[in-house]
TrEMBL record:
Keywords: Signal. InterPro entries: FAD/NAD-bd_sf. PANTHER family: THIAMINE THIAZOLE SYNTHASE. This is Pyridine nucleotide-disulfide oxidoreductase. Residues 1-19 form the signal peptide. Transmembrane segments: none annotated. It comes from Streptomyces fumanus. The lineage of its organism: Bacteria, Bacillati, Actinomycetota, Actinomycetes, Kitasatosporales. It comes from the Bacteria.
Length: 461
């Protein structure tokens, strides 16, 4: 059997999969059909690349485990990324009210443009011995229904003992499997019709330390969801991303963009950007549906083939899970290969099931929220969704004024632990007790931050 592994796709999932496999094989060839930029630049193969991204603490920890000899936190910060704490460095209006800011930081997250993150990760992974990127478009899988033996290219077949499909939202997985005689892989799409609109601004003088600011959508209000975020990123910029589900889509024109921010449940995003200098036009994207391919449940699955990242499951980007799920999936792959060996019988099936575990919690979070918005296609709330929603609302309400409840929510949102954390006795007690402090009437700003907002606000004068 070949001691080569081939990864289809040089996005985040593909590069991390290459790092995961490198200790177990002689070489890893990453196939990418796009030209890869030499620096932190947007590329066509990342449809959500121009919009806000958050790298959660769990995803960052997985990257550290995958890429030997590189401190990914330090590497990303040196490249220009920012670091935020949900406990003290974030203003967040939820469906249940404003979160408080606490002295305890909680798990930190990294904020930067997706272009910077991809470039920094690519630089780190390409230092791993045996990993190379080749410009080529995968045309299909070589082999049979029993075993995948390589990847079909325009000029022949690239043999491999293990193939990983990390080709993203546009994966041709079902078509490729069908060509090998494998059918019946179940897929599900849940589409709230969410549209993203993003514009980048220069961070105003004096606002360099202003916290990440978000107004979240309310899935329980019985009307389309609307949200907005001001995300500090590299090079002294604010990335401002708006999102609206079917019936409340944000517009692409600058005047409409600003008006949309002011019509959110709190106008703080609009007040901040009304006095900021725009650096780009408004970029709009519609590639936001939740899509799940249940590869791990297929009746027949070939040896030598694993799927991960967006090729396995894509999530509504509003929940900030996709990059961390990809990193955790690559880590699951690495652990399975390390335990069994790259050529072990049954490796692909076991790896696929391991990868699916990191997908399932994120899928449940996204879909249980999205099915509640009017006009969502692909599902409606069932009894379990209503039960989860009732508990989630009560926990979120408690978290607006209870540190134990907030800490549990941060741990799960950061993907440092699974949803079982929310059912621990201490979390249950905090949830049942409710908020210990009264609700906030507005965002919890410091005196200096209140002055920054007042100076920038061109609409409240």
């Amino acid at each position: 059997m070949s001691r080569r592994a081939v990864v289809i796709g040089a996005g985040l999932a593909g590069l991390l999969a290459a790092a995961a496999l490198s200790p177990a094989v002689d070489e890893v060839v990453v196939l990418e059909r796009d030209d890869l930029p030499d620096g932190p630049q947007h590329r066509r193969g990342v449809p959500q690349g121009r919009h806000a991204h958050l790298l959660m603490a769990g995803g960052l920890a997985a990257m550290d485990d995958l890429i030997p000899g590189v401190d990914m936190r330090a590497h990303l910060l040196a490249a220009g990324a920012r670091e935020m704490s949900p406990g003290s460095g974030m203003l967040a209006l939820t469906s249940e009210g404003w979160f408080r800011r606490w002295r305890h930081d909680g798990p930190r997250m990294v904020t930067c443009s997706r272009a910077l993150l991809d470039w920094a990760v690519r630089r780190a992974v390409l230092t791993v011995p045996g990993v190379t990127v080749r410009r080529a478009d995968a045309a299909g899988l070589a082999g049979s229904a029993r075993r995948v033996t390589g990847v079909r290219l325009a000029d022949g077949v690239l043999d491999a003992g293990l193939v990983v499909d990390a080709s993203g939202r546009g994966s041709r997985l079902l078509h490729w499997l069908g060509a090998l005689g494998i059918t019946g892989v179940r897929a599900r799409t849940v589409d709230s019709g969410l549209v993203n609109a993003t514009r980048v601004y220069r961070t105003p003088a004096g606002a360099e330390r202003f916290p990440l600011t978000m107004v979240q959508a309310d899935p329980y209000a019985g009307r389309p969801g609307r949200s907005g975020m001001v995300l500090p990123i590299e090079d002294g910029r604010w990335m401002v991303s708006l999102a609206g589900t079917r019936g409340a889509e944000p517009p692409a024109d600058p005047e409409g963009f600003l008006k949309y921010t002011l019509d959110l449940p709190d106008p703080i995003v609009g007040r901040l950007i009304s006095g900021a200098e725009p650096l780009t036009d408004v970029h709009v994207s519609h590639s936001t549906a939740n899509v799940r391919r249940y590869a791990e449940k297929a009746r027949h699955w070939p040896e030598g083939f694993v799927v991960l990242g967006d090729a396995l499951a894509t999530f509504n980007p509003a929940y900030g899970q996709g990059m961390s799920v990809a990193a955790l999936g690559a880590l699951d792959l690495a652990r399975t290969v390390r335990r069994l060996g790259a050529g072990a019988p049954g490796l692909a099936r076991r790896a696929q099931r391991a990868v699916a575990r990191s997908v399932e919690a994120a899928w449940a979070t996204a879909v249980s929220q999205d099915v509640r918005y009017p006009g969502t296609r692909g599902g409606s709330p069932n009894a379990a969704d209503h039960l989860v929603a009732a508990y989630t609302r009560r926990l979120t309400r408690a978290a607006t004024g209870s540190y134990p409840a907030a800490a549990a929510l941060w741990e799960v949102t950061a993907m440092r632990t699974g949803p079982a954390r929310l059912l621990r006795p201490d979390t249950l007690l905090a949830t049942l007790a409710g908020p210990a402090l009264p609700p906030l009437a507005g965002p919890p700003l410091s005196a200096a931050e209140r002055e920054v907002l007042r100076a920038l606000d061109r609409v409240g004068r």
